[in-house]
Amino acid sequence: MNAILRTAHSWLTDFFDENIRKEVQNLIDTDPEELKDRFYKNMEFGTGGMRGMMGAGTNRINKYTLGKSTQGLSNYLRKTYTEEEIKVVIAYDCRHNSDTLARTVAEVFAANGIKVFLFSELRTTPELSFAVRHLNCHAGIVLTASHNPPEYNGYKVYWTDGGQIVPPQDGEIISEINSLSFEDINFSSDDSLIQIIDKDVDEAFISQSVEKGSFGAAGKDDFKIVFTSLHGTSITAIPEVLKRAGYNNVTVISEQAKPDGAFPTVVSPNPEEPEALSMAVAKAEEIGADMVVGTDPDSDRLGIAVRNLSGKMEIVNGNQAMVLMTRFLLDKQKEKGFDGNEFIATTIVSTPMMETMAKAYGVEFKTALTGFKWIGKMIKDFPQSKFVGGGEESFGYMVGDFVRDKDAVTSTLLACEIASQAKANGSSFYKDLIDCYVDYGFYKEHLVALTKKGMSGAEEIKQMLKDFKENPVDSVAGSKVKWIEDYNTSMATNVITGEEKTIDLPKSNVLIYETEDGTRVAARPSGTEPKVKFYITTNARLQNASDYNKVNAQLDTKIQTILSELQLS
């Protein structure tokens, strides 16, 4: 506690503004536990950059922690690009303080002689990713905490390719940041280097989104959509994209259309949570809509609800949406003819159906660690290959490579194209998904995410993962464990034969059990939230679409058995 107090007292100097000093002094005087949580560590970069609760302290998002990161990034850019005018672009979402924090970040860049393009108002994360290359920038920043609760904010860094930073840049940038003290931050802005941007970049992005997401679907006049931005940034793009693509029967949930960092109508602005889409689903039932689409605050994730076999609205998960969107894109590419260099991609905790489908179409399949930055890295690392599409289980998808991160804007349009065409063909989005199960195997997934907050929570997560590794299970739901994949050691071990294989991916705190019948259980800590996550994948043969309900119930029962065995229910 002495070290924490010393760090806290260092924030009482005149370098820090008066409000920060008062906040820290009050914590010292009245709340030692909160003080400990705010100062026991420095905020770190995870799979999605730097993200955390706002407030005073080294373990909080504020002008000084972001300023220090920006100063370190400025130093790195200046060392890397010594003969060029360095340019960065900055966007921000609807969260409390995002606009003022974005301005602070812009001013630190400008104080270091770096040209800044700053969006005039909130914009989506995919537009920021697009803008990096569109404006020939060396880096991009978006101020967002994605789908986290209202008290959070964050800072994601993008590189010249429009993708999030990856090795070796991330480690080098972090080293540069860690070498600094807060007093090294240059806040003396040269405002002549800050240029406000808006409509020109919007037009370029929206035009590309419509071009990449449109496939001439039939039946648009007879296709009803309910859309909600969940108080976030997608209201700036998705309604216009849908309109230009020919979708005129779009009902926007007005109560959730206004950007608001308090997210007053939802418990969590996360489309992975059914509650977040409940207002839109209710409206869809009321007006007889065909599809619901809802996006998270920075518009990189999308949730989709469609009518199931009983005619009721049902939310499809990220794996299901990813499979159907990928198959549609592969079918369209097949119509034009494959060049032989196409690939699709997903992450190690997402559905194995993606690999099965890639083999069926004869295209390459690539898998990555969790976090969309790794899929973006694939595109950069294999310039001779053509990325068709891909995503991850956490409701993120990317159509082609004009954006290098999850893109709920273009993916929303793609989902509508699939569903509208399916309805015109006498089918539906849901029925087309069941056809995928018949063709490639019925894979059903389930996610358990346990929240463990604060310093004690971090230790609890660490211990849970340690126990999961050191006390391996012999079987899962009656099927013997065959492979144990340890991404910390980069080794996959066949526990039946003793065979070992090297995992050719960067080291990561992930452990996966795979049984003889293909059941998989993965465990990892979240890189952006105080959570530990368990991913369960089961599978079965589906001979005919008419057997769907029966097989679905069987897989549900199997998942419940696994949850009970692992004490996760």
Automatic annotation (TrEMBL):
The keyword Metal-binding applies. SUPFAM superfamilies: Phosphoglucomutase, C-terminal domain, Phosphoglucomutase, first 3 domains. This is Phospho-sugar mutase. PROSITE patterns: PGM_PMM. It comes from Maribacter algarum (ex Zhang et al. 2020). Residues 43-182, 212-305, 317-436 form the Alpha-D-phosphohexomutase alpha/beta/alpha domain. Its cofactor is Mg(2+). InterPro entries: A-D-PHexomutase_a/b/a-I, A-D-PHexomutase_a/b/a-I/II/III, A-D-PHexomutase_a/b/a-II, A-D-PHexomutase_a/b/a-III, A-D-PHexomutase_C_sf, A-D-PHexomutase_CS, Alpha-D-phosphohexomutase_SF. Belongs to the phosphohexose mutase family.
